Amino acid sequence: MMGFELGEDDLEASGLYPDLEFRTIDQLLDIFLTSPPDPAAAAFE
Fold it and tell me: What is the DSSP letter of 10?
């Protein structure tokens, strides 16, 4: 099954966490293409 429809009693994921700001893939691509974050570095011992 590739997809399903939400019923009236079902919750959307964004409704479970109203204090988080959700972004679309297009918004994330705009962020990473225009001003990408600095690469993360890790030290392994």
Answer: P
